[in-house]
Amino acid sequence: MKRILAIGLLVFLAGYAIWFAVLPKEPKEGLEIGNKPPEFNLEMLNGEQVTLEDVKGKKVMINFWATWCPPCEAEMPEMEKLQKEQGDRVIVLAVNMTNAEKSIKDVESFISKRNLTFPVALDKDGRVSVQYEVYSYPTTYFLDEEGNILNISRGAMTKETMEKMLEL
After folding, report:
1. Domains of the chain (ranges, CATH numbers)
2. Is residue 114 over pLDDT 70?
């Protein structure tokens, strides 16, 4: 009887292993490295719309920030340098936490005064920041060309750190 149970258990485990090995693998979604992050559709400062699908094909840096955040302000010139030097390989997308701002005019003024040229998306209702679990500013997600999460950073960074996180 023990022998029959042992053989039955081995057959079951072998069958399970084979089934799991040939099962089609769906890309994992979520906020862990290697996963595809949640899709979004946001209005940009220039009035256009942006989605993750729009930026696929290049490495992407999605930076969640606010105008009143000193670490965010400190890293903005570094982000601008990265975009200017690596713009053929990288898209810097700054997602402003517009629901935490006094007005969109404050965001426009912030960008204009600093001569920043990378695209700025507006998270007007805070929905995307909740999806991306943004609890501190700045929070940055780095994506590969297929849209998978390469790295995640919380806090201000230098251009060199950004390049390292993007695996350039």
Report:
1. 27-165 (3.40.30.10)
2. yes
